[in-house]
Amino acid sequence: MAYLGLVPSERSSGQRVARGSITKTGNADARRLLTEVAWNYRFQPRIGYQAQRRAEDLPQAIRDVAWKAQLRLSGRFGRLRARGVQINKVCVAVARECFGWLHVIGGMKKVKVRGQAKVGMSFVLAGCALNLLRIARLAPPPTGAVRP
After folding, report:
1. pTM of the predicted structure, to 2 decimals
2. Following CA atoms 134, 138, 141, 146 in sequence, which dihedral angle do they give, to the nearest 10 degrees?
3. Average pLDDT, stretch 79-107?
């Protein structure tokens, strides 16, 4: 996650540890996309009709992980906000965790991209997140429906 710039900067000496804002190193487009995805976790987790149709071709294991990630990230956004953490810091924290979930999903899919650096691959994974995990604004699943 350090290569995306989503980790805090640090100025330390001896016993003193001082952490600052995020480092903003690496791919700015991937970082921007992940933070836009993270903003959608303000809402309750839902899966809309179009998202369900897009996910039909994916293995069940990936859909289960995506749903688990959506529940966890929405809950984390809400808990941090309830604690009074500044909303931009909450968004960056959720974006950092979202990227970790994307690595899990990307590892399950066994995606191989040749000739691209890790940062380029993280941008591809962040694009997958936009399609897979950002579904919060759509209608909730029907009552009594089993999660996808």
Report:
1. 0.67
2. -10
3. 87
Task: Copy the structure tokens of residue 67.
Answer: 């749903």
Picking from 36, 64, 44, the residue whose alpha carbon sits closest to that of residue 141 is 44
* Sole residue written with tokens 């179009």: 50
Q: Count CA within 13 A, CB hemisphere, residue 44.
A: 6
Which of 90, 79, 103 shows the shortest CA–CA distance to 3? 103
| Side chain identity, residue 39 | W
The token duo for 85 is: 């953490």
**Residue 13 in this model has a pLDDT that exceeds 50:** yes
pLDDT at 114 over 80: no
Side-chain half-sphere CA neighbours of 119 within 13 A: 13
Say whether pLDDT at 106 is over 90: no
Give the per-residue pLDDT at 90: 94
**Three-state DSSP class for residue 20:** strand
Which helix (DSSP H) or strand (DSSP E) does residue 10 occupy?
strand 8-13
Nearest-angstrom CA–CA distance, 92 and 95: 5
